[in-house]
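Below is how a single chain appears once it has passed through the pipeline. First comes the sequence as given, then the structure the pipeline wrote out for it. We keep one example in the README because the format questions we get most often are answered faster by looking than by reading.
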Amino acid sequence: MIPGRLSVLAHMMTPWRYMEPSYMEKIAPDLYGGDLRENPAFTHELAGIMHSDDPVGYCYQLMATVGWTSLPWLMFLRQRTLILAGDDDRLVPLANAKILKKLIPRSTLYIFHGGHLGLLTHAQELGSAVERFLA
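Resulting structure:
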């Protein structure tokens, strides 16, 4: 994948965003982009929800980011595939969704105006997009 901004990825290297809600609240707008930069109330709520003292989930998340790629096999997918991507995703840039679109034969790319947490911040819009795709 094409990585996100280095300043954003640096925030991913520390579990503090899960262990200290005030730190999460501080970095979330830069980390996730989209509505979190414009909606401090949502950012505050998110920081409380994502709080955890257990580092195991954080370790699993880091492990998931290294060492494996599905790119060589994407062209073999035969089922219709919906790709959802935010135009302000700072962790997984939009270019990655465009690569998926080119490599998956029966894919549809839906780009929404938002960031990495689009399923939370744009649930209504993305739910409608999924419904249309499945119809």
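DSSP finds eight helices and two strands in the chain.

See the next section for the split statistics.
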